[in-house]
Amino acid sequence: DRLTQKLQSPLERKEGVGPREVKAGVRETLQRNAIFQRNGRDLEEGIKNIKNIRENMLPGLSCRAKSKKFNLQWVDALEAENMVDVAEMILRSALMREESRGLQEREDFPDPDPKWLRHIILKKVENRMAFSTEPVTFPYVKPEKEV
Question: Cα–Cα distances in Å, from 49 out to 71, 82, 86, 138?
């Protein structure tokens, strides 16, 4: 089936990009574009970098070790693909939230915005990420004052 083929593809490639290279690219992108003092320009640059990793590195993801038993490089390859997805989720969610709140600090939107007292919901819809929001509810403890 298609999932099995996708999971085994790094084992079947004779050469290509190692999982550590992919992971390093994701880490570097997040450190440069998604750590403290975010802004729209940097977040968009990070999304472009992750898109580049997805399109140019992941299709060539390869493991030198070919065994299916206790193959830590294969585990790294599977983790690398997930890291690319999660990095894109982080960057797109941070770009969508146009305010500063808690650890989400945006230089271009320095203040909290009461209309952003919302959860960002991500779903996979036909091989793409779909984003929506829903209000934060306070079933047990309500904030002392409105944000």
Answer: 28, 16, 13, 37
Q: How many Cβ atoms sit within 10 Å of the Cβ of residue 90?
A: 18
The two three-digit tokens of residue 77, written as one number: 């390859």
Q: What is the dihedral of CA 31, 33, 36, 41, to 10 degrees?
A: 170
Strands (E), the chain: 118-125, 128-135
Q: How confident is the model at residue 6 (pLDDT cuts 50, 70, 90)?
A: confident
Q: How confident is the model at residue 146 (pLDDT cuts 50, 70, 90)?
A: low
Tell me if residue 102 falls in helix, strand or coil.
coil
Tens-digit pLDDT profile for residues 84-94: 999 999 999 99
Residue 97 vs residue 37, higher pLDDT: 97
Q: Among residues 1, 7, 96, which one has the least CA distance to residue 44?
A: 96
Instruction: Find out whether 75 and 83 touch, Cβ atoms under 8 Å.
Output: no
